[in-house]
Amino acid sequence: MPLNSVNTNIGAQVALQSLNRTNDDMAVTQKRISTGLRVADAKDDGAAFAVAQKVRANVAGLTSANEQLGSAKGVVDTTLSSLNAISTKMGDIQKTLVKLADAKVTGDERTAYQAQFQKQVAEVDRFILDSTYNGYSLLTTAAQTAQQGNITTVRNESGGTFTISAIANADTLTFSTAADPATAVAAPTQAQAQAMLDGTSTGAGAPKNFKDVMAAIGTALNQLGNDSNAVDSQITYNKSKMDALETGLGALVDADLAKESARMQALQIKQQLGTQSLSIANQAPQSLLSLFR
């Protein structure tokens, strides 16, 4: 191939190839700077991108699982608030029963305490009926109109589940035996109040023993308290897992912006030099004109 040719300019071809490579490298660097990612799509690194997409899906799944766990926590905590109110009201009921168990309390005074006992029991019934979250309740009674029963919710990104057991017979949490809390419960006599307090109330139609109702409330509080803590622990674990996944994802696909910035400046200088080199190479055939003068 002739070295002195206007048809083939070797110097210009080399300069152009070098400039094209520089421009390609600049496009890659600009993409990394603008997205903040070393691997923004499958063209950058197919294997790394496939792994990154799987990790992103896992993070999305955990986020969704925590949303569902949050809903379950709402049901549990609402039920716990009702149980706390019931346990507090039991203190008032016990004080009233002590008054009713006193044989010296008679006449209008006894009638007043009996009415007070009936009102307090009706309050407990309403606490049970109102223990609903989004139309769902964990306190299962004959009078409950909300959706009742155990709650099974997704706990993680792979579809694992978490079950919260309902209080199967919430009628044990109150002295009332009526399905309707507006129905007045029978007021205990002095002997019945005494038997309720000392745990000797027995037989068909006899009032419930105070300690039996308190034991049922304590069992329910313990069960749902543990369930609430378990839900909180699962939510916290999922958050920690998401943080770990996102850290690993960053190490896999994130760009080192300090490094890319330095690379961009170097490429800009290289591009300027390449452009100048190509310009000089394109002017080389001009020197051949002097041979024909």
From TrEMBL:
Domain of life: Bacteria
Key word Secreted present: yes
Any coiled-coil regions, as ranges: none
The entry's keywords: Bacterial flagellum, Cell projection, Cilium, Flagellum, Secreted
SUPFAM superfamilies, A to Z: Phase 1 flagellin
Flagellin C-terminal domain mapped to chain residues: 214-292
Pfam family, one: Flagellin_C
InterPro entries listed in its UniProt record: Flagellin (IPR001492), Flagellin_C (IPR046358), Flagellin_N (IPR001029)
Residue ranges of every copy of the Flagellin N-terminal domain listed in the record: 6-140
Localization per record: Secreted; Bacterial flagellum
Chief location of this protein within or outside the cell: secreted
Family note: Belongs to the bacterial flagellin family.
Main function: Flagellin is the subunit protein which polymerizes to form the filaments of bacterial flagella.
Full protein name: Flagellin
